[in-house]
Amino acid sequence: MDTKNKILLAAVTLVIFSILSCKSYATELQDSNKTSVYNPDFYPQYKKTTVSINGFKVLLALASTDEQRIKGLSGLEKLNENEGMLFLFDQPSKQGFWMNEMKLPIDIIWLDSKGRVIHTEKNLEPCRIFMACHVYTPQVDSSYVIELRSGFTNDHSIKNGTIINLNLTQNN
User: Fold this and answer.
1) DSSP symbols for 7-57
2) 88 lies in the same domain as 65
3) 10-residue block means of pLDDT along the chain (172 residues)?
4) pLDDT score for 28
5) Is the same domain home to 71 and 132?
6) Where are the alpha helices (DSSP H) in the chain?
7) The domain containing residue 147 runs over which residues?
């Protein structure tokens, strides 16, 4: 076998190995997500609920008081793919969110009273300067807002019209 064919064979072998490794890792992530969603270290002082978002289980800390809604995920150093925060509001309105005091990028999903996605903002970076911190507000009223790790909406095909069944029976 000449050098050109050896290089080609090595490249093909590397690609096949990479594909198999990625599939295996993705399967492990899905399996671990199915078996263990509850993380006692994730916002231990908050009540929580588990929801299924396009078949993927996510543990959401419930922000139902003004203090909890103002704090949100600010200051959090790490957010796993199966963790997030669900903001509950007393009545539908145009809920504005900003990235002040955030330490990691996130996606934000606004929902109507039936759990239908009405607006998303993706890959929002933390504010670097308080005075220049943008407020993200949809043009329509929402009843719920979910914050998840950056990239979640793309990775799980979340778009306007997607229904998220909010299981508001608290786990904790």
Assistant:
1) HHHHHHHHHHHHHHHHHHHHHHHHHHHHH----TTSSTTS-EEEEEETTEE
2) yes
3) 50 36 34 46 85 93 93 90 95 92 94 96 89 90 96 96 81 50
4) 35
5) yes
6) 3-35, 66-71, 152-155
7) 36-155
